[in-house]
Each structure stands twice: as C-alpha cells, then as structure tokens.
Amino acid sequence: MDYPVISPIAGHGSIVNSKYSRLYNNPLFDYLSEMLPKEIKDSFRWCELVYSSMPVVSNSIRKLVSYPVTGFTYNDDSDKVREGTKKVVTAIHLKTALLELGTDRYIYGNAFRSMYFPFQRFLKCRHCSQLTAIEKAKFTVRRKNIELTCHCGWKGAADIVDKTSYDIEGIRIVRWDPKQFDLAQNPITGKTRYYYKLPAPFVAAVRRGDITVLADSPKLFIDAALQGRNVVMGNNFFHSKVNTLSGYASGWGISPLVPTLKTFMYISVLRKASEAIGMEHITPQRILFPQSSGSSDPSVMGSMERWRSEIQLALDRWRLDPNYVMTAPFPTGITNIGSQGKALSPIEDIKDARQELAMALDIPPNILMGDATIQASTIGLRILENQLTPTTESLQDFANWVIDMINAQFDREYCHVELVPFRLADDMMNKQMLMGLMGQAVSKGTILESLNLNPDDERKRMSREALSDHDAQKDVETEIQKREQSLAQQAQADAQAMDTGHIPAYNQQKLIAMAQEQAMQLLQMPYEQRRSVLSQLQNDDPVTYALTKVQLEALREDAKGQQEQQQ
C-alpha cells in the first residue's frame, strides 16, 4: 500500500520550471516530505526507529499499554475449573503476552500472534517404519528432503512424525514480525489471507540440518523452508490491528506513530544542528596577543619570539601550579572566539517539537510528565478512559482466543477470562470525601453514581441477593431435616427396588452410571457442541451436570496417562 505523496506543482517559464523553483513554490511540499515512507513496511521500520530513539515516545507507549492491563476474573462457577485456568494463565505468562500485544499494536498498528503447542518429533524410516527421536537420529538434509540413516541399514528420505505433548509449560505464544507478512484482502467481504515469508537465517538453518530449528519447529515451516515457499497462515492465527481509514482498507492497520514521523525528522535535524553548534561554539578558543601601550608598536619595541617563549613558559608553569604568578615582557591582551553556543542552540525549537510530537501521540501531557493535576480534570480522564477502552476489549478478545485454542488442542474446559475493569485514579480524594458524607449530606445514590453504578440496579441486586440468601438458608434447613428422616426411607426404597426391579429417580449408583455414559458420549463430540450440551445440562439438572463433569475429568486423565505410557 502506498501512502499519498504530494507532488510539486510545475510552474511556467524556464526559470520557474527549475527543480528548486518547483520545490519552494509549492506551499505543501518541503524537504522532509521526500523522506517520508511510501510503503507500509517502510513505515514499520521508521516507527521502530522512533520508538527506540525518542524517550518521550517509548515512555508514552509503555504507560498507555500497561495502564489497562489489570488482573483477571474467571467466568465459571466451578472452583476446579477456575483454579485450572489460573494455572494455565500463569504458566503461559498471559499478562506479559497482553503487554507485548499492546506494544506491537501501538508501534506497528498490527499484532500477529499464533499458539505453539509442544510435541515430540520423530523420523520414520520408510523401509522398516521404525521411529527414531530426531535428537538421536543420524540424518542429513539433501534435495529438499531429510535423509535418515536407519538402524536397519536403509538410507533415504524419512517422514516426519510428531506426537503431541500435554505439557502446559511448553505452550508458547508466538510473536510474529509484521514486516515478514504479505496480505491479500477481499475488499467486499473483508476476508484476508496472510502469507508469511520465512526469515533467511531460519531457511539457512533448516537446509543445513540445524537441530535447533528442526527439533521443535512446526512441520509446516520445515516443509516451506525446504521447498522455498511462503507459509499461508491458517486458523491458528490472530491479527489485532488499529482502526484505520476506508481508503487504507488493505487488511493492514496504520500505526499511531505515523503522524509523528515528520516531527521526528524535524527534531533530528534540530539535534544535528545543535550537535554541530556544540562542537564548534560551546568551548571558546582563547587568543593571547601583545598589546600596544600608547602609540608604540610591540613588534618594533621588542622581540616577538621572546614574548611568545616567555608567555608559553608562564602558561606551562600555571598549568602545574594554579597559584603561579605570571609575568610578561609586554602588556598582553586576550580575546575569545566562539562561546556563542547557548545563544545559537535551537533548544526551544526542540522543546516545541517534542510537545507537538506528544500531542500527535494523543496522550495528555500531564499523564506523560507524571503531573498529578490531571486528577482534577474530569473531562481529560473521561477522554483517556474512552481512548483505552477499545484497547482493553482487543486485549480481552486475544486472551479468550488463547484459552479457546488451548481447550481445542488439549480437549480441556478452561473458562474464559476478563480483565478487571480498570478505573482511572481520578478524583479519589473527592470520592473518599463523598463516602465520608454518606447518610449525612450525601445520598447513597450520589455515591453509586460517582462510582459509575446505577442506584436502581444496585437496589434490585441487593434485594435479589437478600431473598436468595434467605431461600438458601431455608433450603439448607429443609435439606437437613430431609436427610435426618431419609435414612430409613432410603433403605426401604432400595429394598423395594431390588424386589420390583424399579430404580428410584435419584439412586446414587444409577446416577453415577448415567453420568459415566453421558461423559463417554461427550468425549466423542466436537469441542463447541460438547460445551453447549454441558451448558444445557447445567440448567436442566445440576446434580447430573456435576457428576458428569467429574466423570469427564476422570476419563481425560485416564486417556492422558495411557498416551504417556505409549510414548
């Protein structure tokens, strides 16, 4: 995708048509415009340079990215599921991954991610079908194939066989370089295909048989490196991008740093000028000269060689002893060349350009400079919160995509997560004062509204919770009475069932058997269908749902143990 470039307007006449007249007669054209990137990937490199060389930019991005990344809440009623999800989130360092995603979104305008799941790689002999771990195998890479020297004596092309590992610690979130991608988008449907160009060092490592990349790189990338083609990314791919204009609808997001590029170049020019001024004009050059007294000329009255030698000797002694008192055969004058650096330095212009650059980043200056006075600006805080909300939603979507990918790969039931709603530390003092006045000069409704809560909704929720607590207490008392009276009735019902062959609806053994059968059926279903059936079962029969979940976990653990023994 090309960025629009303002072309100079041609004038008339031989003088007007010259290069410089076209340059300076166009009010929309300047020297720095010639240096702006014309391609999207060139802009990525410029944005990297801006981020790495401008402290005001890197500091701003870190603050914007880290502020909305809070803790996680887990959307499931089961303590076991929540605890399992917490372990996975910790093992894959999901919070760090969200910070990295936000950084890439802000620098490149795009963030590409994939999930890497651990596996064990083997080479299969085409003659005897024996599997050999690639770390222990004798092989070479030749003619776009991996040739194995097998124990059976056969030597030739081998097949790659990967066995899935269920080690959660081995999961990685792959962070792709957007400069290596080419995109093809349908402008009508918006559907985009992603083509990844393998880095040259990776291709070279594969073709020379480097075990570092051959042992655990996905087979898709190994084949692409051997065959010299790009990789078409599939379902295991997540693209998060910054919103852009319809005129740039090519699948790419445009980096928020693009508006700062020209200002960055301008600052670089000023810095270069300041450096040149500092090298030449900061340190003054002192000149000593024999000064005439009255109408006499020192060069006529005495020897200049003697004056020079005595002055040089006096300076040498003064450097050794700062208290040395110098003498001169003639009156001596001194003058300085340079020392105008402070007056010539464009420091004020640089400050103005930095402020303009910060404004282009859309960050309140008080936040950037760490000034606490922003807490008194309700409008500024609201604008910043609304600005960060879309970023938070994108980060949360990515976190749940990661959970879904792990569930589908490992056949698990980890729950979705949500970021704890971030609240700007705005007017905290005012809120504390309002809470102190609650019930005296301030109503509860005013307090709730200051916390972005609806008073009517909160009253309804409190009523429902009070009624629910009352009903739960009554249910507990009733259940205790039933259990105390049910021992004899249960024994009688069991005896009757043995005589008549009729099993009561909530017989313990019958329920366990039904749950086992239900769990075995669920294991045969796809992940999304199984999740829907479990949700419906939870609503219809909570008891059967709880037993089925237990049996489902037990069957998964048995299957995992058998697979590990086979490996």
Task: Describe this entry's structure for a reader.
This protein is an alpha+beta fold and 567 residues long. It has helices at residues 19-25, 40-53, 55-66, 79-91, 94-108, 200-207, 211-214, 219-227, 261-282, 298-301, 304-320, 341-344, 347-360, 365-369, 378-410, 428-436, 444-450, 455-500, 508-523, 527-540, 542-566, and strands spanning 72-74, 110-116, 119-124, 131-133, 138-142, 145-149, 155-157, 159-164, 172-176, 181-185, 192-196, 231-232, 238-241, 285-290, 332-337, 417-419. A 3-stranded antiparallel sheet has the order 9-2-13. A 3-stranded antiparallel sheet has the order 4-3-8, with no helix packed on it. A hairpin with a 2-residue loop joins strand 5 and strand 6 (145-149). Helix 3 (55-66) packs across helix 5 (94-108). The protein is extended. The model is unreliable at 1-16 (pLDDT under 50).
Shape: extended
**Rg computed from alpha carbons, rounded to a whole number of angstroms:** 38 Å
* Order of strands across the main sheet: 9-2-13
End-to-end C-alpha gap: 49 Å
Structural class, by secondary structure, is alpha+beta
Give the DSSP E fraction (strand runs of 2 or more residues): 5-15%
Q: What integer is the average pLDDT?
A: 79
Fraction of helical residues? 40-55%
User: Treating each run of at least 4 consecutive H or I residues as one helix, how many helices?
Assistant: 21
- Largest β-sheet summary: 3 strands, antiparallel
Show unreliable segments.
Answer: 1-16
Query: How many runs of DSSP E, i.e. beta strands?
Result: 16
